[in-house]
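R.M. (postdoc): so does anyone remember the format we settled on? I'll just put the structure tokens first.
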């Protein structure tokens, strides 16, 4: 199977919105992996969930493990440019040829699973590819990000070395529950008997739900704020410096080449989780400092200087949007912002836009096209922004929306491309191709 035919097959299986409501979807994943020979059991894992920050935290943990000399697999979602990004080893995605070959090899198992449980979804298939690739490549360890929630997510087949819940916020309420406590209960479903669980959840009620679940099943519980203290040491638009001191009497002097103070909390969460690994995987302070110093997370508070400059950030839920808004004020003060935004139909558009409406900003709302997904109409987003007192216009084509934003922005201003992953991926690719590579 070629890479192109593999992508076409996957796109025809985009059924995650349906799959998310199916109570037996985890059983289908279990059957698929059993048909594949349980690849996820052939290496130790770290399991990372949460409403926001789980992708960054997973990437941080993997970067440190790689810096320590461990051959490290990493599965995160969503991807920015290619599905191959969902199966990386030491930061390098699976090749397109290997991706196509691996999916072809898996097809008999997929077809046998489909006979009883229906065709595995787009997400389940990509997750199984990552598990298989890591097993075939004999990784020393793999870091696996939860897809949706926890209890019934396809990743919850794992019995990891450490579980992580970065935080709990309101997202996917149609599937996970309408309150923070209900969502926390679903996310706490990744807790396993005897496996340490680390959380940075700041909401007390949600954190208590997770702690109770851990107590009931016998999973050691660690709250990051009680295990680590963060002291900022400064920073600029190239990154930030801070110290993390932990309850294990370790002190990490970190230089993080990514922006946003919330990333300091993610780094502390990653460190507390890494400290709970066994002796065979535990990393030194020097490994940790070196791994985080080399960190790169495209599309997460990613800044390109210019006149105007531009920030790419996937803020597709209210929690991520609040973090982005705080980081923009922290980084750029009262400089004029021009947002280019598209939001997926199943997201909380009002909750995502609300943190941005009080900023010194104007808005260009746009859309996106991708198989199996639809965007909120730009006109609807403009109505929300206008109701909040903000200036807004609508342009259907994303690249045209970015071009208009660039023409109208102050030379000293900042363009912020955010909202849907699909929009950020499209505009970032356009920017790198048409601006960065031609500079």
């Amino acid at each position: 199977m070629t890479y192109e035919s593999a992508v076409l097959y996957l796109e025809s299986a985009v059924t995650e919105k349906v799959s998310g409501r199916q109570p037996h979807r985890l059983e289908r994943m279990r059957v698929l992996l059993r048909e594949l020979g349980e690849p996820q059991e052939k290496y130790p894992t770290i399991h990372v969930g949460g409403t926001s920050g789980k992708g960054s935290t997973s990437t941080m943990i993997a970067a440190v493990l790689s810096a320590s000399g461990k051959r490290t697999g990493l599965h995160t979602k969503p991807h920015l440019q290619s599905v191959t990004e969902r199966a990386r080893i030491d930061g390098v995605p699976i090749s397109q040829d290997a991706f196509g070959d691996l999916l072809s090899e898996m097809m008999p198992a997929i077809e046998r699973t489909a006979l009883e449980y229906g065709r595995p979804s787009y997400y389940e298939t990509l997750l199984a590819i990552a598990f298989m690739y890591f097993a075939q490549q004999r990784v020393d360890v793999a870091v696996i990000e939860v897809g949706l929630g926890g209890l019934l997510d396809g990743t919850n087949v794992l019995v990891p070395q450490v579980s992580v819940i970065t935080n709990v916020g309101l997202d996917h309420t149609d599937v996970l529950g309408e309150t923070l406590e209900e969502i926390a209960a679903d996310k706490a479903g990744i807790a396993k008997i005897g496996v340490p669980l680390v959380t940075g959840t700041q909401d007390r009620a949600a954190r208590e739900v997770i702690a109770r679940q851990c107590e009931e099943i016998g999973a050691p519980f660690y709250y990051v704020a009680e295990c680590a203290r963060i002291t900022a040491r400064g920073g600029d638009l190239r990154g930030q410096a801070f110290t993390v001191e932990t309850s294990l009497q370790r002190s990490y002097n970190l230089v993080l080449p990514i922006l946003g103070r919330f990333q300091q909390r993610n780094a502390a969460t990653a460190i507390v989780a890494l400290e709970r690994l066994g002796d065979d995987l535990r990393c030194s302070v020097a490994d940790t400092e070196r791994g985080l110093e080399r960190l790169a997370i495209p599309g997460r508070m990613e800044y390109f200087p210019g006149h105007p400059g531009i920030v790419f950030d996937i803020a597709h839920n209210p929690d991520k949007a609040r973090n982005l808004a705080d980081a923009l004020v922290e980084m750029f003060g009262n400089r004029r912002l021009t947002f280019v935004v598209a939001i997926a139909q199943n997201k909380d558009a009002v909750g995502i836009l609300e943190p941005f409406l009080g900023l010194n900003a104007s808005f260009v709302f746009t859309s996106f096209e991708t198989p199996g997904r639809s965007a909120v109409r730009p006109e609807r987003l403009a109505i929300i922004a206008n109701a909040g007192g903000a200036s807004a216009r609508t342009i259907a084509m994303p690249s045209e929306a970015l071009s208009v934003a660039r023409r109208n922005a102050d030379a000293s201003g900042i363009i912020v491309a955010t909202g849907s992953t699909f929009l950020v991926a499209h505009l970032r690719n356009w920017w790198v191709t048409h601006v960065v590579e031609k500079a």
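R.M.: ...and that's the designed sequence above, right after the tokens. Also worth knowing: Residues 302-436 form a domain with the Protein-Tyrosine Phosphatase; Chain A fold (CATH 3.90.190.20). Residues 16-21 have pLDDT under 50 and may be disordered.
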